Amino acid sequence: MNLIPRLLAVASTVAAIAVGTTVANAQPPGFSPIDRTDQKKSKQNPKLKGHAVPSTITPVEKIPVDNLRLPASFKAEIFSHGHPGGRTMVRGDKGTIFMGTRIIGRVYAIIDRGGKRETKVLLQGLTQPNGLAFRDGSLYVFAIHRVFRYDNIEDKLDNPGEPVELTKAYNLPDTVHHNWKYVAFGPDGKMYVQVGANCNICEVNPGIHGQIRRYNPDGTGMEIVARGVRNTVGFDWHPLTGELWFTDNGRDWAGDDGPQDELNRIARGQEGAFFGFPYCHANGIPDPDVRRPNPCAGVTLPAALIGPHSAGLGIKFYTGTMFPQAYRNVAFIARRGSWNREQKFGYDVVVARTAGARATIQPFMTGLLDTGRNEFHGRPTYLLQMPDGALLVSDEQNGATYRISYTNPRGKKK
Amino acid sequence: MFWSGHAFTQTMPLAERLKLCGACHGEDGNSRTPNIPSLAGQPEFFLVNQLVLFREGVRKIPGMSELMTGLKDDDLVALARHFAALAVKPGDEPVDPALVERGERLAGPMRCASCHLPSLAGQEQMPRLAKQRIDYLIHALKEFRDGTRSGADTLMSNVVIGVPDDDLAALAHYAASK
């Protein structure tokens, strides 16, 4: 029972020592990023592997928009294309949509030119610039452990110039695995930043990895708001409660059926809560490889399970008025789809209806997974609500975004 | 370095461009140049990905980025397709049977075969390791381990965390022997 406080005490000491040093190698005794996966024990097909993401343009006629299935009176159309690997999306004050990527190292700008979208490569040569945020005319770009701010970016789309580098101030670990960033400004004006566990399953240094942190925008004033988080790459704040909700990707090689990925909530006043990694997963499943007594003691369990290996990434609470009232303040979650599972799962967008500490998950956008052939046609990654209330969904696999809109069938007020 | 600034590659016919590749990587795609990888029989998807990363400046290798500057996706695909189709030949470096045996024992728990296949022939975005140059494999593995390989797959970096030099050498000999 004394284990948790002691663990956190060790962690904070280590974090203090690590400031300004190469944090990757500063492991306290008992912690190690060396993977503890026991693949044989999992009895899974050892040939399972991550799916390849094309780094070349998918011809527009091959983008599977016609496969998409939505509830009645919703419609999907291609909004933009020709941006291989495009994932995260933020919208500037003047309407530019900025899009982050992983392997291809680009940040795209999607510009509206009289109703037609033009896609351009704004930045390139970065190491997995998945983390984007926009505030007061500035675009914040988080690559793995490097942070840049481009001021007045929407006036400089043809020549962004030199950014202000904030890498030193943010002092993020230089480890790479599960450390492509997701970031967002919270309602408190702070920058929230993911720092994932740099392994599949291991005892990471909890003072550094497996966290969500928040900072002042300039990188000062770091606080840890969630611990024991394996790898969240999407979060958003409930429009009414102001509480942070985040997706978290469960570990691999512990079975086709789980532990399931999670949707979590940080309740008001519970900042710094511990979410279980690496000892306790999903709804209280002890880890088979990294064991400790009472593995789930002191662990905040998820608000909902979101499927085995489903890879829930982007989450967005809907606040628009285009969709029916039943979608107001409901979270949309993009599930990129499984790799560590024989029968593929996910590749869709679901809705999470929240009530207090719990949420229920329902399907919304399907059609990208052919369960009969066990093949997928696209991978939804992130979501963006447009000013008119339409919802954009990025499809990383096809380098495209879909615009989801709703038309009231009776032409009446919703 | 060689060819830096040679933007003329943009308008070069494929055959000319392939000669430039062959100068280091071997005309038949089987490298005889120290520390330069063989390209023969690599998965096309892998080669396209890497060429894109050179073009974009994500992987920063002197010479390679300059050669790829301004090339279109189709140009890169043509290069990749050419090398993917070439026959793989054994290298000219001595392979140490004791290291091969040790490398094989190490490779099992490291799950190399999950992505690179039991034959280590690679697939899709995962490179062929079989019959790759030993010196290049050691170089690449060290870069993954030490975090000095830009544009690297992050999972690979995790796999080789803390693995000592002599184990990396054993893995390289094992792969080259396949």
Describe this structure in words.
The complex is a heterodimer of chains A (414) and B (178). With 414 residues, chain A is mostly beta strands. Chain A has a single domain, classed as TolB, C-terminal domain (Neuraminidase, 6 Propeller). Chain A is 6% helix and 32% strand. In chain A, the strands form 8 sheets. In chain A, strands 10-11-12-13-17 form a 5-stranded mixed beta sheet, with no helix packed on it. In chain A, strands 1-29-28-27 form a 4-stranded antiparallel beta sheet, with no helix packed on it. The longest helix of chain A is centred in the first third of the chain and has 16 residues. The termini of chain A are far apart. The N terminus of chain A is likely disordered. Chain B has 178 residues and is mostly helical. Chain B is built from 9 helices and no strands. Chain B starts with 13 loop residues before the first helix and ends with a helix. The N terminus of chain B is likely disordered. Classes of the chains: A mainly beta (414), B mainly alpha (178). At the A-B interface, loops of A face helix 2, helix 4, helix 6 and helix 8 of B.
State the gist of this model:
Chain A is mostly beta strands and 414 residues long.
State the secondary-structure class of chain A. mainly beta
The Cα radius of gyration of chain B reads 16 Å
- Estimated structural class of chain B: mainly alpha
Q: How many extended strands of chain A? A: 29
- The level-1 CATH class of chain A: Mainly Beta
Shape of chain B: globular
Task: Please give a handful of descriptors for the protein shown.
heterodimer, A: 414 residues, mainly beta, Neuraminidase, four-stranded antiparallel beta sheet, 3 helices, globular, disordered N terminus, B: 178 residues, mainly alpha, Cytochrome Bc1 Complex, Chain D, domain 2, 9 helices
